[in-house]
Amino acid sequence: MFDLTDHVAIVTGGASGIGRGIAASLSEAGASVIIADVNLEHATATAKELGASAIHVDVTDRTSVQEMYRHVVATHGGFDIVCSNAGVFPNCPLAEMTDEQWEAMFAINTHGTFKVVQEALPYLQERRYGRIVITTSITGSHTGFPGWAHYGASKSAQQGFMRSAALEVARDGITINSVLPGNILTEGLKAQGQEYLDQMTRSVPLHRLGTPRDIGNAAAFLASEEAGFITGQTLIIDGGQLLPETPEAILPPRD
Ligand code: NAI
Known about the structure:
Elements: E1 8-12, H1 17-28, E2 32-37, H2 40-50, E3 53-56, H3 62-76, E4 81-84, H4 99-127, E5 130-135, H5 149-169, E6 174-181, H6 187-190, H7 194-202, H8 212-222, E7 234-237
Parallel strand pairs: 1-2, 1-4, 2-3, 4-5, 5-6, 6-7
Helix pairs in contact: 1-8, 3-4, 4-5
The chain binds 1,4-dihydronicotinamide adenine dinucleotide.
1,4-dihydronicotinamide adenine dinucleotide binds at residues 12-13, 15-19, 37-39, 42, 57-60, 85-89, 108, 112, 135, 137, 181, 183-184, 186-189.
């Protein structure tokens, strides 16, 4: 439906998982994609597979984010799509959580998004056009899970940030929206263990975990010109996981 030819997109945390799925969908829609990741080796390998470019960025470091944008402008003449996707989700029981663990979670997930979005604004405002898509989560704003008090807080904070930011930049032709993945089979999710994966699969009415491309396709839509009247919104992509009022409301798969 939509064509992203002549658009330039930056995807943070694009080397693997959901970010890789977003980069693949944007690339397939015709955009020039820059995969920006703290792991340059993985970013370079992924970029090669997708026909994209790779750059190092640490979203916790403002100077690194500034350098990323300067480099993209120098090499691609500018950009108009930013996907703030880099994030982590280590599990830790609340009773054992240290200040350092709490702060490290926010440093990447929440403060990283703040820096990535804020530093993009001067470039997008100059163009009077921009599409920003933030990867948040159903965890925090809609659900909870033991061990993810810090993660849920960091992810719902991104959504609070997005709504006010969307209002501030609307007059510049810039939209900011969030994709809220449910359980998406990535390296990060696999690290939660097989028991977690089985438990989550049972809780999805569509009877499967999501794929990175499920999120990528939604992000590519929100990054398109055609989505220009949508801003400050959250799009849940979870296979219906949030819907059932009881576990019995999930009908068994057909034979
Ligand atoms: P992943 O671990 O597979 O990929 C995360 C990527 O971010 C990696 O390439 C990593 O190198 C990069 N990264 C980490 N710290 C960084 C930093 N400081 N600067 C730049 N890049 C950095 O994780 P996954 O599953 O793809 O998660 C991506 C996003 O999706 C995260 O924001 C996560 O919270 C969110 N999410 C994931 C869900 C899932 O089921 N996998 C569910 C809901 C949300």
